[in-house]
TrEMBL record:
Keywords associated with the record: Hydrolase, Membrane, Transmembrane, Transmembrane helix
Entry keyword annotation includes Transmembrane helix: yes
UniProt protein name: Alpha/beta hydrolase
Species this chain originates from: Rhodopseudomonas palustris
PANTHER family, A to Z: DIENELACTONE HYDROLASE DOMAIN-CONTAINING PROTEIN-RELATED (PTHR22946)
Xref: Pfam families: Hydrolase_4
Membrane-traversing stretches: 12-29, 270-289, 301-322, 328-355, 388-406, 426-443, 455-474, 480-502, 514-533
Domain (Serine aminopeptidase S33): residue spans on this chain: 61-174
Keyword Transmembrane: yes
Length: 534
C-alpha cells in the first residue's frame, strides 16, 4: 500500500509558522540587550564580558561565575537583569571552560588545588571589574553550583566584598560572620541536600530554626542572610527563574542601598519559541532531502529481538566499564561518555549481526538483498542505482548535520552556552565522535525498518539513559556530575530524535540522521565539558 504523503500546503504552513517563531524569539532575546553596552576583554587568558547601561558612570560591579561544564552564556539572565537595573555585570569563562584556552590541572576528586586556582581567577576578574572606569569600587559576587563554593570562598577571604549570592549552593567555606550579606538560592526541584545546605548556612547566623523566604541579620553590619526556593525549577532552570532574578536583584539593591526599575530577564519563553521553531522548521525542510531507498531500511526487529538488543547493552556497558581507566581525553567526563557510547554501540552491533545470521539460517530462501534486509538496492534494477544511493546518502547526511550544527549552533552559542569550539577543542570533537558514531548508527538501525515496532526509538534511548544511571550508581564519586548532565542528554534525545525521525522518513535510510546526531553529540560534549589534565 502506498504511503500517504503530507499535503504540501501543510508543510508550507508549518514552515512559515516556524520561521515566524524563530524571528519573534530572536527579536525578543535581542530586546533583552537593548540599552546595554556589551564589551569583551581578556584578563590574562580569561575571556570576560562586561554588561552596563551607557549612562552608568559610578556603580557597583557584580562578578558572575558559572558552574561546572558551564560558560558565561549560561549566566546572561543574571547579567542582563543586573545591568538593566544600573549595575555593572561581569561574566567570564573559568579555566578549562567555554572559550578559556587554559586547561585545569589536578584531580577533581581532590579538588583543593583546582578550587584555589578558580578562586584566584575570580579574584583577578573581580580586580579588573572594580578598576573599570564606570565602577564605584564596590563589588559583589554571584556563583552557580561549583562556583557557589568559589564565590563564598573568595568573599570570606576578601571582606571588602559587599554581598554574595550563592545559587544551588554547596560549600563549607562560610562562617557565622562571613561572607557579608549572603543570599542562597536553590531550585525547588533540586535535591534535598542542597536545600539542607542552604538552611545550614543561614543557621550559622540564626543559631537554628531558619526558614526559607525570611531574611535574618542586618545589612547595616553585613550579617544579612536569606535562603529562598525558586519555584518549579531544577539545577539548570534555576538560572532562568523569575524568582532567582528577582531575589538576586532585590538583594543587591538592599546590600548597596540602591533602587532600580525592577526589570527582570524573561528569556525562557523566547528560548522555547526560538528552539521550538528550529525543531519545527526541520520537518518541512526534511521533505527536500533526496530519497535513498525505495522502502524503509532498518533492522526490522521483532519485539523479542528489540528488547534483547535494547536491554543487553544497557546492562553490560556500565558493568564492563565499571573499573575501566578513563583518562585518555582531557575533557572531564567526556572520556567516560565516549567509552560508554562506543561500547554500547559495539555491543548493539554485535547483537544485530547475531540476529541477522540467525534470521538467514531460519529463512535461507530470503535473498541477501531483500528489501527487508540490509540493502534494498535491487528495488530499482538500474545498474547506476548504488552510485545514486551513495550520492543521496551523502547529500542528506551533510544537509542534516549542517542544520544541526549551524542552525542550532549559533542560537545555542549566543543565548545558552559556549558551542563554537576554540582551537584546543577541535580535535576533541573527532575523538568523541569515535564513540558517538557507532552508537547512533546502531541505535538508528535497530529502531527502524519497514516492520519496525512503534516506540522502538524511545525504548532504545530510555535504555541508554538507564545505563548511564547505572554507571553513576556504580561509581558515584567519579561520575557524580553526570547526574546534572543526564537531563540535558534527555532533552537532546527528544529534540534531535524528532529531527532524525523526519530525516529517516524522507530518505528511507537511518544513516543521515544517525551521522547528524553523532556529530552533534560529539560536538556538544567536546565543547562543553571542562578541559582537565590529571
Amino acid at each position: 500500500m502506498a504511503k500517504r504523503r503530507t499535503p504540501k500546503p501543510l508543510r508550507i504552513l508549518v514552515g512559515l509558522a516556524a520561521l515566524v517563531a524563530i524571528a519573534v524569539g530572536l527579536w525578543q532575546l535581542q530586546r533583552g540587550k537593548d540599552g546595554l553596552l556589551i564589551s569583551h576583554a581578556t584578563v590574562g587568558q580569561t575571556p570576560v564580558t562586561v554588561f552596563r547601561q551607557p549612562a552608568v558612570t559610578s556603580a557597583p560591579v557584580v562578578v558572575i561565575a558559572h558552574g561546572f561544564a558551564g560558560s558565561q552564556q549560561l549566566m546572561q539572565p543574571f547579567a542582563q537583569t543586573l545591568a538593566r537595573n544600573g549595575y555593572i555585570a561581569v561574566t567570564f569563562d573559568f579555566t578549562g571552560h567555554g572559550r578559556n584556552p587554559v586547561t585545569m590541572v589536578g584531580d577533581v576528586d581532590e579538588p583543593t588545588k583546582i578550587t584555589g586556582v578558580l578562586v584566584d581567577e575570580l579574584g583577578r576578574v573581580t580586580d579588573f571589574a572594580r578598576k573599570l572606569p564606570e565602577s564605584d569600587g564596590r563589588a559583589a559576587v554571584l556563583g552557580h553550583s561549583m562556583a557557589s563554593d568559589i564565590v563564598v570562598a573568595y568573599a570570606v577571604a576578601h571582606p571588602e566584598i559587599a554581598a554574595t549570592v550563592a545559587v544551588s549552593v554547596f560549600t563549607r567555606k562560610s562562617t557565622a560572620t562571613l561572607p557579608h550579606d549572603l543570599l542562597v538560592i536553590v531550585g525547588a526541584l533540586e535535591p534535598q541536600m542542597l536545600k539542607d545546605e542552604g538552611l545550614r548556612i543561614v543557621n550559622q547566623v540564626v543559631g537554628g530554626g531558619a526558614v526559607a523566604g525570611r531574611t535574618y541579620g542586618s545589612f547595616a553590619d553585613g550579617t544579612a542572610r536569606r535562603f529562598v526556593l525558586a519555584s518549579g525549577v531544577e539545577h539548570i532552570g534555576v538560572l532562568y527563574s523569575q524568582d532567582s532574578m528577582r531575589e538576586a536583584l532585590h538583594w543587591m539593591n538592599d546590600a548597596f542601598g540602591r533602587t532600580s526599575s525592577g526589570w527582570i530577564d524573561q528569556r525562557p519563553r523566547w528560548l522555547a519559541l526560538l528552539f521550538g521553531g528550529l525543531i519545527a522548521l526541520a520537518w518541512p525542510l526534511s521533505k527536500l532531502l533526496p530519497r535513498a531507498a525505495a522502502v524503509p531500511i532498518g533492522a526490522n526487529l521483532t519485539w523479542k529481538q528489540l528488547l534483547v538488543t535494547a536491554i543487553v547493552p544497557a546492562v553490560l556497558t556500565p558493568l564492563l566499564l565499571w573499573k575501566a581507566p578513563t583518562d585518555f581525553l582531557i575533557i572531564l567526563l567526556g572520556d567516560y561518555l565516549t567509552l560508554h557510547f562506543l561500547l554500547y554501540g559495539l555491543l548493539t552491533a554485535g547483537l544485530l549481526v547475531l540476529i541477522r545470521l540467525r534470521s538467514r539460517r531460519a529463512a535461507p530462501q530470503l535473498a541477501p538483498h531483500h528489501p527487508h534486509g540490509l540493502m534494498a538496492l535491487d528495488a530499482l534494477p538500474d545498474p547506476d542505482r548504488p552510485r545514486v544511493v551513495i550520492g543521496a546518502l551523502i547529500i542528506a547526511a551533510i544537509a542534516a548535520t549542517a542544520y544541526n550544527i549551524l542552525g542550532f549552533g549559533f542560537a545555542l552559542d549566543s543565548y545558552l552556552f559556549s558551542f563554537m569550539p576554540i582551537e584546543p577543542r577541535i580535535h576533541l570533537i573527532a575523538a568523541v565522535a569515535c564513540g558517538t558514531i557507532p552508537y547512533f548508527l546502531t541505535a538508528e538501525w535497530m529502531a527502524h525498518g519497514q516492520r519496525a515496532k512503534p516506540g522502538a526509538y524511545a525504548l532504545a534511548k530510555f535504555c541508554f539513559l538507564a545505563s548511564l544511571a547505572v554507571a553513576v550508581a556504580l561509581n558515584l564519586q567519579k561520575l557524580f556530575f553526570l547526574i546534572i548532565i543526564v537531563p540535558a542528554i534527555l532533552l537532546l534525545f527528544v529534540a534531535f530524535g524528532l529531527i532524525s525521525n523526519w530525516t529517516y522518513k524522507a530518505t528511507n535510510h537511518p544513516l543521515p540522521g544517525a551521522l547528524a546526531n553523532a556529530v552533534l553529540f560529539a560536538w556538544a560534549i567536546a565543547v562543553t565539558f571542562p578541559m582537565v589534565i590529571r
